Amino acid sequence: MYGLGVFKGLAVTFKHFVETYVDEFRWSARGGRYYNDDALKVRQSLKSEGAITVMYPEEKLETPERFRFIPFLVMDDPAPGQKAGKDWCTSCGICAKVCPPQCIWIERGRQPNGRPKPEPEGFYIDIDICMNCGYCSEYCPFDAIKMDHDYELASYDRSTSHIHDKERLSKPISYWRKIAPLQAADEEMARQKAEEAKSQKRAARA
Amino acid sequence: MAEPTIEVVEAAEEAVDPAVTTAAALKEKFPDLVDDPRPNFSGIMVPADQLLAVARTLRDDCGFDYLSSVTGVDLLDDGKMEVVYHTYSIDQGGGAVVLKTQVDRQNPVVPSLVPLWPGADFQEREAYDLLGIQFEGHPDLRRILMWDGFEGHPLRKDWQEAFYEEESKPFKSRWPEGHVFRAEERTPFGKNVKYPAGWNLEDLEFDTDEEIYTGLTISRPKSQTDIRTDTVTVNIGPQHPSTHGVFRMVVTMNGETVVDLKPVMGYLHRNHEKIGERNTFLGNIPYTDRLDYLSSMSNNHGYMLAIEKLLGVKPPERAEWIRILMVELTRIVNHLWSLGFLINDLGAFQTPMLYLTIERELILDLFEATAGSRMMCNYMRFGGLAYDLPPFVRSQPTIEFLDELIHTRLPQILEEIDTYLTGNEIIRERCIGVGKLSRKDAIAYSTCGPVMRASGVNYDVRKAEPYSFYSHLNFDIPVRQNGDVFDRYMVRVQEMHQSLRILEQVFPHIVETQGMPILEGEPSYNVRVPQGGDAYGRVENPKGELGYYVTAKAKGTNPERYHIRAPSFINLTPLGLMSKGEKIADLVVVLGSIDIVLGETDR
Question: Which helix (H) or strand (E) segment is B339 a member of?
Fold first, then answer.
């Protein structure tokens, strides 16, 4: 019958239309379909039914651990009363070399006698250029640079606030443990293993 | 109306690579032809004056009737300019017969292959635009990506961009004395753009488009009826919601009927290839994501194949399975998106598109959890992958998520597409018989992917020249015969079914190989090509054949030449042909059915 296809299509649209209301009714006793973390989790999973809209910014999607948005520098948790802890960065320059759009500038630290010191004097990332590829954190041998999860970086003036300096980039290790607990634990284990291997070697040599 | 019969043609089993025998036969017939003498370079050197004769023999007598890629290479050290042609045989499958022609760099004149293969049109224009190679006999040799009046040919090795710093990355200014600066502060010209000598922006008259219009029929035709009509030339785009990006069509119309059409592109041109030649091998991977940004995983895959040939590494088993998993999911993502937009172009605004987007979002969730980004995945590495699958996707164990996605959700949406859209009379009325492309033209115009297969050409790189583990998988190539918009739609729907079939076969391997290595060797940021040479890696992208032509010097850290055979770009060549005689409302649908992404078209 001519026109049957159109009606079948309309039935699909109607099904989608009704599903959202059914789902809303289902959640009505459990805190509502929207602005409810449990409901959001279901709505954004394979079990979702009806509209999958996220009511941003009231609702925000959970970012997966590997999510990458603009790097940050890892430092030790600051001692009480201190603003910054010790940088993990040794200014070896691998991140600056591997960076595809070349958005990382590192000023290597110098000792009083002029020899290089394994600490960065300055560290800059131009976030307008950064393409969020994650190479810097992937190839950093010291786990000293990691990709952030903070994606709300809009600002009114790109000419003054979009080159992040070391102070702006540095975040304590506890922050990394919070946003990527599994990865942080894995890295910690790998570091410990490497440390043990090193000390064993040293003991064997002695 | 009868239900469309779904035709699925089995690909023929291939035996000895016909490219090898054909190359030998060619050399026998033309004694002047020699193999490329440089070590690790492949291809046959053809003198420029014999090129047409060799190409004609290749096409008519040897069955290598498909000119896939045309590109130029600037050999600055030798003072030569080289044009590289990749030809394939549709019926025999197998590898490429590569023709190379070298001419003097000062006066690079090569005969045009447009009389033999109209598909060479845009590609030769691109080589002219970016490298300054003159193609003798080309009907319309104009710049295609850069603007008229642009100075120089940007892919030449001695051309420097406005923000030029060094020949290749990494730049020395970044470390160890990295005093930060913004690129604008250091441009040698004081502006972003370099103008030719004698150019003054103030007295510039905007008449540069005249050339675009000249070829079009703008004279007043003799009317067949008594009504006096006049043809009108209209610009659709570059800022138009139906052109899928910044793309412009100059259309001459008689009433509502399209008489002639010329695509104008390059608005999103960023000289991807020059960036790639300045960049390291590794640094190019995230840039390939940004070509066809809807299918970044398979863009990665093509680039991996080319560079892995140069490096001589092979990924471990698990990496191959995960690659196929990701690539086939990408195909579904891309087709869902392109079908949604096709319906959008038909006038069913947004609703169907958003329904198809739901499943796309779920797949992108997997990409995000695995690679860290929904669209700019940057997931594959030379000899494997960056990371293994994550333990959880949206707080569900990954294997469970994949199982449910492949076996429940995706079949559901494919079924829904069939009831929702395929049978819909409006869609059928609008699509059947519109934008026809014959089988002969589909091959001659170098189209690829669903556009080609909808015109009755049974060609798919996954079968013709299997890469990765595709030869171990059981799937069919959907082929349809009418070559209209509806067939392109149906081929995409059927391809999704086939992708699902592949995913079902891949899934048990993903489960089995858990915990196995995903990368050959140690991850290294300093990738050097041991021997140099050239390599061409091609994959069947959702939009068609995506090829990467890369040449490198021994111990090189960056490509000497990095060319992309972009399916979106080359599929536009027959747009004028397909839309002639169509109504202007259908023109939008024809363009939608080609499924272009401007990130790849303009590069």
Answer: helix B317-346
Cα B319 from Cα B305, distance rounded (Å): 13
Answer whether A67 sits within 8 Å of B393, measured CB to CB.
no
State the pLDDT at residue B191.
Answer: 62
Question: Which residues from chain A sit within 8 angstroms of residue B3, using beta carbons?
Answer: none
Q: Which residue is closest to A65 within chain B, CA to CA? A: B369
Q: B126 with B140: CB under 8 angstroms? A: no
With an 8 Å Cβ cutoff, are A45 and B178 in contact? no
Q: What pLDDT score does B223 carry?
A: 54
Q: Which one is predicted more confidently, B151 or B570?
A: B570
B233: closest CA of chain A, how far (Å): 36
Q: How confident is the model at residue B300 (pLDDT cuts 50, 70, 90)?
A: very high
pLDDT in tens, B24-40: 888 888 888 888 888 88
Helices B351-371, B317-346: axis angle to 10 degrees equals 160
Cβ contact (<8 Å) for B378 and A126? no
- Type and span of the H or E element at B240: strand B239-240
Would the CB atoms of A93 and B419 count as touching at under 8 Å?
no
Task: Return the structure tokens found at B139.
Answer: 């009907």
Q: What is the pLDDT of residue B1?
A: 35
**B225 burial type by CB count under 10 A (0-12 exposed, 13-18 middle, 19+ buried):** exposed
Q: Global pTM?
A: 0.88
CB contact under 8 A, B173 and A105: yes
Task: Report CA torsion sign: B355, B360, B361, B366.
Answer: positive
Nearest CB partner across the interface for A102, out of B174, B393, B405: B174
CB B100 within 8 A of CB B44: yes
The one-digit pLDDT tens for each residue of chain A (206 residues) are 788 888 888 888 898 889 989 988 988 888 888 888 888 888 888 888 888 888 888 888 888 999 999 999 998 888 888 888 888 888 888 998 899 988 999 988 888 888 888 888 888 998 888 999 999 999 998 889 999 998 888 888 877 888 888 888 888 999 999 998 988 898 889 889 988 999 999 888 87
Tell me which chain B residues have a C-beta less than 8 angstroms from the C-beta of A182: 391
ipTM: 0.91
Interchain proximity B170–A41, CB inside 8 Å: no
Distance CA B311, CA B298 (A): 20
| Candidate from A13, A134, A139 with C-beta closest to B525 | A139
Q: Which of B275, B33, B36 is nearest to B164 (CA)?
A: B275
Spell out the residues 6+ positions from residue A102 whose beta carbon is closer than 8 angstroms to its own: A96, A129, B169, B170, B171, B174
B576 Cβ neighbours under 8 A, 6+ residues apart: B260, B261, B262, B263
CA distance linking residue B82 with residue B104, whole number of Å: 9
Are B176 and A93 an interchain contact pair (Cβ–Cβ within 8 Å)?
yes
- CB contact under 8 Å between B372 and A126, yes or no, is no
Decide: B250 and B239 in contact? Cβ < 8 Å: no
Nearest CA in chain A to B366: A64
**pLDDT band, very low/low/confident/very high, at B11 (cuts 50, 70, 90):** very low
Which of B180, B181, B562 is most worth mutating to test chain A (most A CB atoms within 10 A of its CB)?
Answer: B180
Q: Which is more confidently placed, B480 or B150?
A: B480
Nearest to B174 among A96, A131, A147 (CB): A96
Task: Find chain A residues with C-beta within 8 A of B361's C-beta.
Answer: 52
Average pLDDT over residues B554-559: 88
- Please name the residue of chain B whose CA is at the shortest distance from the CA of residue A139: B525
Q: Kindly report, residue by residue over A29-39, the tens digit of the pLDDT.
A: 888 888 888 88
